[in-house]
Write a structure and sequence with these properties.
alpha+beta, Jelly Rolls, 8-stranded mixed β-sheet, 14 strands, disordered N terminus
Length: 381
């Protein structure tokens, strides 16, 4: 595994990465998705997930489906602005993105930490990660995130309706589970930005029934694989500990961003990590020769979002029954889109939308009425 340039400090980083990867494979929290004969998630998976705060599901996507998703993502990059604030794509055509109410592309400076030590993302990233000098002649900006991918990629919408993933969401968050949001994390080889240590949850740390699953989880679908060098690192078991004083933890580590005990969530292409949003996690700048592209799809318990008043995305909102219902229609549309593509596959039954299938068919009408700008109703907590 090639990590960073060969320097004294990077020798120590190499040792940290090697030890983290070794520890990750000893956790006993990886394997295929398995359900018992009664449809319940295999007890060993549940135990490992709740013990560690994440589980690595291997070989989830077929090679054909993975290729379709990869091709769709490459098309998005081809049609995106060629750099920050540009109106044209790399081929001189009018770039996509401005047709949506929430602009889908986030640009960042290569190998930087755009969040650490700032008030962005509700101040969840209090300590800055190590930044690196970008390579000479490289781009001024790279696309670090793509928001609302279900409206940009039909293959992502079909993936959203994957019966095994939705069955997992039901097992973890109950039959009335709700969406959170969807984002693509793009970490180009030798250029990808870091994401400072943080916990995802912001609203429900004082929830009267708070427990280790209150802030939901993310599926992290790996298009090209996630390595110890380019992937997300996590402190196993930290989802159980409430809101952590991250600044204090970094200070106790002599200011180093290499937190002791953390492990990388290593995953092959086509595999999927299920990660608890309350875990302490982050990622280093991608100085490696391997790109990482991760589609995040998050899900909540209904009890965690119902009645929440928030400005999570900079706009005031109340997550009442109507708001939740409208956002949850995307699950029903995703299920129908997948069924049309894979008619031989068992269709997942999403209980909150039973009897409403005709209103949530996947077609050009619902592309405009439900899917376009769907992420204006994301359920962020």
């Amino acid at each position: 595994m090639s990590i960073i340039e060969s320097t004294a400090d990077n020798n120590s980083m190499y040792a940290y990465v090697q030890e983290g990867e070794r520890a990750a494979y000893e956790l006993g929290n990886r394997g295929p998705i398995r359900f018992d004969s009664d449809g319940s998630l295999h007890e060993g998976i549940l135990d490992a997930y709740w013990r560690c705060g994440f589980y690595v599901f291997e070989d989830v996507l077929s090679s054909d489906e993975l290729k379709e998703i990869q091709d769709d993502f490459e098309h998005v990059l081809e049609r995106a602005p060629y750099t920050k604030d540009a109106e044209l794509d790399p081929n001189g055509r009018s770039a996509i993105g401005n047709e949506f109410k929430r602009y889908p592309f986030k640009f960042s400076r290569p190998l930087s930490d755009p969040l650490g030590g700032t008030s962005k993302n509700n101040g969840r990233h209090p300590s800055k990660m190590t930044e690196h000098e970008p390579p000479a002649g490289g781009p001024d900006f790279v696309i670090s995130s793509v928001f609302g991918p279900l409206q940009l990629m039909d293959s992502a919408l079909r993936l959203y309706g994957h019966p095994k993933l939705l069955a997992l969401a039901e097992q973890i968050n109950g039959p009335d589970f709700t969406p959170f949001n969807e984002t693509i994390i793009n970490k180009p080889a030798g250029l990808g930005v870091s994401v400072a240590w943080h916990q995802d949850g912001t609203k429900q740390w004082d929830h009267p029934n708070w427990d280790q699953g209150t802030h939901g989880f993310n599926f992290m679908i790996q298009l090209y694989g996630s390595t110890a060098a380019n992937g997300v690192w996590v402190l196993p078991g930290s989802h159980k500990n409430g809101q952590i004083d991250i600044s204090e933890k970094v200070a106790a580590n002599q200011g180093s961003d290499r937190l002791p005990g953390a492990v990388p969530m290593v995953c092959e292409p086509g595999g999927i990590v299920m990660a608890n949003r309350q875990t302490l996690h982050g990622s280093f700048a991608n100085t490696s020769p391997d790109r990482r592209v991760t589609i995040n799809m998050g899900f909540h318990r209904r009890d965690s979002v119902l009645g929440v008043e928030t400005n999570y995305y900079g706009e005031p909102a109340v997550y009442d029954n109507t708001f939740i219902h409208e956002r949850s229609r995307m699950i029903a549309v995703g299920i129908d889109a997948r069924q049309q593509k894979f008619p031989e596959e068992e269709r997942f039954v999403y209980k909150p939308m039973v009897g409403l299938e005709e209103k949530n068919r996947w077609n050009e009408e619902t592309r405009e009425s439900i899917v376009k700008d769907y992420n204006m109703r994301d359920l962020g907590i």
